[in-house]
Specification:
Blueprint lengths: L6 H23 L3 H8 L7 H10 L6 E2 L1 H6 L2 E3 L6 E14 L18 E17 L3 E3 L5 H9 L2 H16 L3 E4 L12 E4 L4 E4 L6 H17 L11 H18 L12 H4 L3 H25 L1 H8 L43 E2 L1
Parallel strand pairs: 6-8
Antiparallel strand pairs: 1-4, 2-5, 3-4, 7-8, 7-9
Helix pairs in contact: 1-3, 6-7, 7-8, 7-10, 8-10
Length: 352
């Protein structure tokens, strides 16, 4: 994608990237990884770079929007509050060739000239100001996350959420609970069989919230480390750290009490800033995907509790309107074709 080539723009972006890199280094060097995940869990739909920007400026933030967006939903930014600066994309309408959907070739008009159409194109990024909900006052906000959190305190509701998520996943891949799968490993809560793209959950796990976290952990493996994934041959410890971090973020997002983050492999990420950014970006994206799916499954529950009319879009913030700068990024985060870490031979095919 084309980006502005002005020296001023490139200088600003270099400064932003330096700030992001410094924040990542701080996370690892100061043993703040778990704290970072707790912050990131509140902003799963933002890019890694913008999460790091928020983390560096206001680590206690929980929900951010622009000044006007807050005003539109009945809340006012209080005087004297300092804005949090993040980056939003600059989208411009440009003329592009219209491609014939059948031939996949440029479409021609009656005179044989190429037909063009207006399309949105990312042309750069710009700094924008946002404010945390704690910096505002006004109308109370309905919040799907809070509703699910309160529901999960009721073991029956937690079981319903586990069942609905399990059924949802089961439409895409093989998933089951069977004691036969754990005869040789009765204490294992679950595992992902990447050869068969299957999730197995131990039926003897009695704690429903733990069973839910286990399901999310294995589902993270299925999204990150399946057989056709470029990440499938990463070291086992790397994959476990990613899945555990993803499950921690998702469960924390919904306020589920979860054990302290314990994966020790993250020390390896601290040695390579590029590898760290790749790993964190993959965790952020996977957590985002899972949270969106859970949000969608609970849309009817949200409408039931708030007695709202059906919403046009599933929105994790409930009555909070869609953030006008949602899912913005301060730089392209595509994964390089080659990893910076040497690959190892494939280990066991079961990811726990």
């Amino acid at each position: 994608m084309p980006y502005p080539k002005s020296g001023d723009y490139e200088e600003k972006m270099a400064q932003v990237q330096k700030q992001v890199d410094q924040a990542i280094e701080r996370v690892f060097k100061n043993n703040e990884f778990q704290r970072y995940l707790e912050v990131a869990s509140k902003f799963p739909k933002y890019s890694l770079n913008n999460v790091m920007m928020i983390y560096a400026q206001k680590p206690d933030a929980t929900m951010v929007q622009g000044y006007k967006a807050w005003k539109d939903i009945g809340r006012q930014v209080q005087k004297g509050e300092t804005a949090i600066k993040i980056f939003a994309p600059i989208i411009k309408k440009v003329d592009m060739q219209k491609i014939d959907p059948v031939t996949q070739r440029p479409q021609l008009d009656a005179q044989g000239k190429e037909v063009t159409e207006k399309k949105d194109m990312l042309t750069g990024f710009t700094s924008v100001n946002v404010f945390d909900v704690s910096q505002t006052k006004g109308k109370e906000l309905a919040n799907l996350r809070a509703i699910i959190r309160d529901d999960i305190k009721d073991n029956h509701r937690a079981a319903e959420l586990y069942s609905s998520l399990s059924n949802h996943i089961g439409k895409k891949m093989d998933i089951r609970e069977s004691a036969d799968d754990f005869k040789d490993q009765p204490k294992v809560r679950g595992y992902y069989d990447r050869v068969n793209n299957a999730i197995r959950i131990n039926p003897d796990v009695e704690n429903t919230t733990m069973k839910l976290k286990t399901l999310i952990h294995e589902y993270a493996h299925a999204q990150l480390h399946r057989m056709d994934s470029p990440l499938k041959d990463l070291p086992r410890e790397h994959k476990e750290a990613q899945a555990e971090a993803t499950a921690f973020m998702v469960t924390k997002y919904f306020g589920i009490d979860t054990e302290a983050y314990s994966a020790g492999y993250i020390a390896t990420w601290a040695k390579d800033i590029n590898l760290a950014k790749q790993a964190l970006g993959e965790i952020q994206k996977t957590a985002n995907n899972i949270i969106r799916e859970i949000d969608h499954l609970n849309k009817e529950r949200f409408q039931e509790v708030t007695k709202q009319k059906p919403m046009d879009k599933s929105d994790s913030h409930g009555k909070l309107q869609a953030d006008p700068i949602q899912e913005v990024a301060a730089a392209s985060e595509g994964r390089p074709k080659q990893m910076n870490e040497p690959k190892t031979k494939s280990g066991p095919d079961l990811e726990r």
